[in-house]
Amino acid sequence: MNTSPEPRNVVLVHGGFVDGSGWQGVYDILTSDRYKVSVVQNPTLSLAGDVAAVRQVLDAQDGPVVLVGHSYGGAVISEAGTHPKVASLVYVAAFAPDKGESVSTLIADPPPGAPVPPILPPRDGFLFLDRDKFADAFAGDLPAAQAAFMADSQVPWGVDALSGAVVEPAWRVKPSWYLIATDDRMIPLAAQRAMSERTGSQVVEVAASHSVYLSQPDEVAALIRRAAEH
Prior knowledge:
One of its GO terms (molecular function) is hydrolase activity. The protein is α/β, with parallel strands linked by helices. The chain has a single domain (about 10-230), classed as Rossmann fold (3-Layer(aba) Sandwich), CATH 3.40.50. It has ten helices and eight strands. The two termini are about 25 Å apart.
């Protein structure tokens, strides 16, 4: 008879330009540890729509949840994380807006010398990364073929999602953890450190690109476990 405790629930939220399949490495590790893991396929058309998609998944959980967001997904969990089933938040190289802030406002004034993401001008209300610069900016520590596939399978990121402002940031009332990717060329290192400090998060730093959740799933899973066990 198995007397081990039931696993905690983990909900994973992807960011812009990608979909939830990138979480598979993290998913595999956590499910092998008997966590119940759900991956949200948020459409990244608007912040409100993505928050609704996350809350729908949260509603279906059978107990407390560790809510995890990568990149723009951090803005989504900051708003969706006020859901009563959310016990803690994990930011993975992610935006953590305060009340009234959006990803758009957070990237409006980059630090001097910081890398500028190669976002192309909006096309019919959607954003894409320059394919030829995708690997260097987003996936510098992934195999070239994998980075090329990601560049060619980009999910259109809605301008409305980028500009959606957080109303009630969950990190003000829920404990949070933050994984800083020190080689990130999408969200500057200084910005990640500032956001993690402002949120009062417990922090780990990993030498990785913006795609740390793909390149170092063990590190990401380890931080999620810490949030689950606090």
